[in-house]
Amino acid sequence: MKTYKLNDKLNFGEYKGSTLLEIAKVSSEYISKCIVFLSDFYITDEVLDLLYEAVPNFELSEEAIEILSQKEIELYDEDEDIDDEIDEYIERSQNSRNSREDDFIADAFGGEASAYWNIE
User: Fold this and answer.
1) CB of 6 closer than 8 Å to CB of 19
2) Rounded average pLDDT over 81-85
3) DSSP secondary structure code for residue 59 in this structure
């Protein structure tokens, strides 16, 4: 999902090459439609606040607001999945490193456990 910022230019549609801010000044309805009909179109609350400040007559449809909320939940879930993947990778890396260290110590002392009783 692409998160659009205030000065990001669209690379599609009627307003191709225009920034989100430029579009908001002439057609908040177009931004609402992008949110509703484009699954990968997302605007953060911070960007929305900036749009509301910069463009007094800017208004999103109720449907667009609801869909933005759903997209935010999806993004949060994606972030959680990524965090889980990172944690799993770190754990695998640490386990692999520990195993290599144990193998090295065993090789260094010829596998004699009593020779390395105090090595950690």
Assistant:
1) yes
2) 59
3) -
